[in-house]
Sequence to fold (143 residues):
Amino acid sequence: MQLDQSGLEILDGDECRALLSGSTIGRIVFTHQALPAVQPVNFVLDRGDILIKASQTSRLATAAADTIVAFEVDEFDTEDRTGWSVVTVGHARRVTDPAEIASLEALPLESWAPGRRDTYIRIRPQLITGRRIGASSRPDIAP
Fold:
């Protein structure tokens, strides 16, 4: 097990991808009016890419078109003080090809938010990192 300078376990790429694939809710980080914005979204993976749906006129769909974004998933147990976090950084683009949109319609991606969600955003992860805090990575807990 490799630890970072803070004593958190560093997760390898395969474990990060496995944790990402087992999640359904994440946070997308994008730029809105020159400031960072974070929005929770539900998502699915498609051939390693992260797919979300947004309203065509939403600030997310506007800001995440053809730009670099970050995407984060995590899970924590506050009672046990354990958890993990995976962060990806990659290029986001609106899906505009009708054939690609038709194939995406078959995926199990239903937005939790009310209103019409008619725009797919595809994020291609280019960097993926992860950390875990748990009994084995905390010096105050004996193994």
Remarks:
- The domain at 9-130 is CATH 2.30.110.10 (Pnp Oxidase; Chain A).
- The helical segments are 13-21, 59-63, 98-104.
- The first strand starts at residue 9 and ends at 11.
- DSSP finds three helices and eight strands in the chain.
